[in-house]
Design goal:
Blueprint lengths: L4 E3 L6 E5 L10 E3 L1 E2 L2 E2 L9 E3 L1 E8 L18 E4 L11 E4 L14 H10 L9 H33 L4 H21 L12 E2 L8 E9 L2 E6 L8 E2 L6 H14 L9
Antiparallel strand pairs: 1-8, 2-7, 3-6, 4-5, 8-9, 10-13, 11-12
Helix pairs in contact: 1-2, 2-3
Length: 265
Amino acid sequence: MARTTHVKKAQQRYETVPVIDEATGQPKRTPVMRNGKQRETKRGALVFMTVTVQDKTKPLPNYTCDSCGKEIEVGTPYKHITPKSGPYGGRKRTRHESCPTWQVWEYSNSWSARIAQATHDFDISSAETVEEVQSALEDVAAAIKELAEESRETASNIEEGFGHPTSQSEEAEQRADDLDGWADEIETADIPDLPEPEEIDCQNCDGTGEVETAAVLTGESTEVETCEECNGMGQVTPEEPTEEQLDEWRENVIDACSIVDESPV
């Protein structure tokens, strides 16, 4: 993943221009050193670096946030990344500090990034039914199968282009098989059943089985009658599991669905 750098205050940017050597009238250069020795090219020529300075008469435009599209004004906090896109680095990307940070698939088209995107929205932390969990698993599996089909098409295109299988086409075909197998495992994950509701104290009578009448006092005692909510038993069985039961069930479900985090690619 690309490293995110956070900057407290954006500064005004200026064009950089070469520093002119007064003695020669030419751009000033400084030796590029490595291990105490000036670097050389493959042909033995000494390597120099041109000395530059900011030209305060040539201000550059402020950065633009690639999330909200608005300008990052001087003095405001921002963040930036420079994802590598080739042997010479990559393009710097900037966002307001308050805007969401980059997801890996926003700047990378690698298979690991694509898979991360496919599984990113899988969230069962608030699920209340087995059906909800199964639906979430099926959505993830479908997204992974789309990637598998794409990889299989890539393998086919490579073979058609060369007229025979190659190591690249075989790798793409194997990746497709691995993704399909993974998707099947996700789709058929064994989801624990919801727990049966447990008896709890009746809230109407506080678990005593009796409730006071309309406060008719006879001497020092109060008349009581059998609680209609629990039929005098003191406990009732709710229609749904308690929140504590659901929390424990969700923990078990998350463990059972850990296959979503186990990409074979």
